[in-house]
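Hello again,

I reread your note about wanting to compare the complex against the isolated chains. To keep things tidy I'm splitting this into two emails, and this first one only covers the full assembly. Below are the input lines as submitted, including protein chains and any nucleic acid or small-molecule components. They are followed by the predicted structure of everything together. The single-chain runs will come separately.
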Amino acid sequence: MRKHLVLRVVSKLLMPFILLFALYVQFHGDFGPGGGFQAGVIFGSTFILYALVYGVETARRVARDWVLRIFMIAGVLLYIGVGYVALLLGGPFLDYNMLNAHDPVHGQHLGIMLVELGVGITVAATMVTIFFAFAARGRR
Amino acid sequence: MDLPAAIPGLYNYWIVVLLMMLGFYVVISRTNLVKKIVGLNIFQTSVFILYISMGKVKGGTAPILVDHPVTYSNPLPHVLILTAIVVGVATTALGAALIVRIKEAYGTVEEDEIQAMEPDE
Amino acid sequence: MAFGILHLRNLFAVVMLSGIYSLLSAGLLVTLDAVDVAFTEAAVGGGIATMLMLAMLSLVGDRERTREGDFRVVPLLLVLATGALLLYGTLDMPYYGDADAPINKHVVPRYLEESGKEIGLPNVVTSILASYRGYDTMGELTVIFTAGVGVLLLIGRFRRPGGSE
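Full-complex prediction:
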């Protein structure tokens, strides 16, 4: 990729904006289109772009395998955890109203935000993991 | 039943059926595994369009609440299809991984060659 | 577009076309008022799926083998028969855009009306996805996780291609 200087520089400049956009989509999903899945995919594709431009080996050092695995699991656990907390607080599983004693609507907001965050984390980590699995296969 | 009046009401289904059948045909008639997966993708996407088009309400808008009263299109199919899209990419990823392994094990991704290599049951 | 996918032998072109197909259907979905879905389909179908298949192609080879007598009758008949049956079935379906269709009647008005008070989020799709139908979303997340694990199991380890286990 040494020849493609324009590509490298432009990609490097764009990546923070893409990540920012992913975060925007994630947290703004309550008000406009978006939410966890879309944001996770965009976030993951940032790392894939990095791998495409700078090489898979370099990208693997940025996003280490064990970090990715932890993130994959963390998102799922976050989601289930929110459900369990609601259970412990007295309501049915995944009933967000229980999360905030004073104002059930705020409880809903909190629950939805946490849950979408969990989704976004797992989706991003899984996308990158799958890509790395494919990309590394071709290496001797 | 009167066909001319039915067409504006039903054409969305017919388009979907056409796409569906194309995807179906690709899956069952081509022996190349990669093409089969692409055909499955066509099939999947046509199903999404089916559900979403069923949820559209004439004169409706995207189901995001605004202050003034307005007609919304049905959000429930959107939710189901969101899930379906993501599950679809998960299956595509697994299918792709399987194809890679098949290629490594058999040296080819043409279905009939693979069947020829398998001992008959 | 779909016809092109059917006939092309160069698999790289096939995958590219399928990516364009996904993008086009995302555009279509926008006109159908499904903005969330269009967003997801564009990102996932156009982006991730295409990328995955390209990665797979790089490992597998990108030419479909040509063969004589490729036009086979049985699949075509099967497809035509199924298509005819489906078209016959659509005659009973509610009309496009009909606000009185059963799909718009039972639960959805409740969601649309109550969601503002119970949850307070403008995006009804998100509120249904994460709260009213949050259980399904949990399952979906598990599916993605499982797919990741599955891919890792299949091709996660560094291994010489062509070697046996």
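For quick reference: The radius of gyration of chain A is 18 Å.

B.
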